[in-house]
UniProtKB/TrEMBL annotation:
This is IFT81 calponin homology domain-containing protein. InterPro entries: IFT81 (IPR029600), IFT81_CH (IPR041146), IFT81_N_sf (IPR043016). Belongs to the IFT81 family. It comes from Chytriomyces confervae. Keywords: Cell projection, Cilium, Cilium biogenesis/degradation, Coiled coil. It is found in: Cell projection, Cilium.
Amino acid sequence: MDLRLVSERLSQPPFNKTLSVIQLHDEVPPYALAQLISDVAAYLEEGGPVPSIHKVDIRNEEPEATAWRIGEFMRILKFRGPGLDINAIRLEILNADRALLLEILHFLLKDVALHKKRCYLATFLEIVDVPSDYMQDDLMLELCEQVSQLQDQFKETHKFVEGLRQTGGATTSVKREIQQMEEEKQQVLSKISKIRKKVEQVPNHQVWLEAAKKLRIEQQQEAALADRIREQRNAVQNAEKKYAASQQQLKEARSTLTSGGAEGLLAKMQEECKMNKYLASDNLPKSIEETKQRIRDLKRVISEPPLRETDFENMDEEIKELNAETARLAEKKLLKANDNSSGDDKLALFRQQAAIIARKKAGTAQRLNALTEEVMRLSEEVESRREQHRGPGGGKVLTGDDFKKYVSELRGKSNIYKIKRSELSEMQAEFGILQRTEQILHAREKSMSSNLSELERRSGIPNFHNDRETLEKVSERKGEVDQAKGKTLQEISDIIASLVSNINNKKSVLAPVINELRKLRVVASDLEADYVERKRHYDAMMVGLDSEAVKLEQEVKGYRQDIAIDQSRYHYLNMAIGLIDISQEKVLHEMKSYIGGDEAIEAQQKARGFKTYRDVYNKRIVEQENMGKSLREHQKEIKSKHEPNVKQLAYFTGIRKLLQLKVAHNHKVLSGGGLDTTGFSQITQDRLVL
């Protein structure tokens, strides 16, 4: 509890209470704290549709009424004391518990805006506590139903108003966005007009537009067909999944039939029926209700206005308080259970067993749901793996009889493979023979070429054979190069001719566009110069207007202050004049009454019993003076008799003590405890001597 916050909030308007932390903790009495709570509660209910009941002076109110009023207000604001319910809070308020009063004051001043909102809503949404005896009346039931409907309408209206208040602050941003959209619209329209002009200059533009339209339609139809194909493929996949599931169920049924017979199949189906019935009757409604509750919560969250940081903080505090309250209730329940367990509760064991069985049943249902989801997930994964392993021809993973067919086909292909492999080995052997033959021929060629070169050397024409082969190769290459050059030159000339023709065509087409572009550049330069000049004038004018606007705003502010001062002075003078007029009227009436001669005034004098106020006041002055004289004389008499009376009172006090001592002594003598040494007692008598 932060008493510094309480002190700061109380020092602010409208409370204006200068109380320090020490004063709040030690010096301020409990009734003053209760009065502060009432003042804060009245401020929170200020401006509501009904007058506040907290504008009271608790000195004129019964303590029980104060405790009930403050406790009811705390119940409306959902105040949760430290481990106390509302009745205990009222009792502590009645007992003037300082700690609880300070806790309530801190709670009220911690978040004033939230409490004001709660007070306002509680005026309309507070549930009317109607006794059950009156609820038997149809008229009362109808009225309660109408109140509930009106409260629901108020909730919707309040949410709508809050949404409008929160969205109302974004008016400037919306206007700015609308202005930007208008500017973008103008830009788009200008671009469209420019593009339209350019398109109109293209020859046969209508044909091109019609072709573009048809292309767009075809593309849309193609996209629609692609969507339909995708849907059909999804439908085929779903059908295949259902088919696979049905086949799996059929196999399981056949295996069950072969293993256990019809009785086993029937028992299994009955077990599945019981399980499905339990899931449909117990588990499924709970999950549906949880889902519906979650949907309702999400709808409520969506319909509510966006939360602020303070709302999150308040919710965190409420969650903490609720958690603490839950823990406290759990402890109470545990203690109560321990107390009850000490007694002779014969049904406790059965209740415990039933709770354990219910928990096991719920856990089994949850595990069954989890396993069902796991089976579905694995089925989808298997189907996806099958899709991945499909061949390019659209085949799928083979199972059962199809796999046997595949094995038989594979065996036939393996036989063919063995035949082909034997043929390949024969061809490889033949390839080795041919390769060896080629090597022998290359060796013979080398020996022959060496013999030929030796013969040429001997004949005086060395390397003749090699030179002739080289010349033949060079001539062949030169012919190929010349042919390639001719083709390349022809292609280059064709390309240049096509480029020149294209350039000429484009020049003829672009000539008007270039001319128009030159004109537009000239116009753009002129417009830019004009824009720069006007922008300069505009900036200068805006600077002058801004300075003048600032001056005018200051003058208007000064004039408004003068007007407010003059208005306040005007109202003050009007009131003063009115008071003076009333005083003057009283003076004139008094003068007329004093002079006399007016029958109406005389009748009024007879009715009130005196002639003028002057006579009445003079008479009262004389009476007060006489009373003062008599009181002064009485005071003198009292002062003169005061000292003798004090002495006489002291004398009487001493006499009383003496008499009391004598009475005590005589009681002792009479009881035999006061004998003297001679053996007899002396009886005395009390006498009063003045």
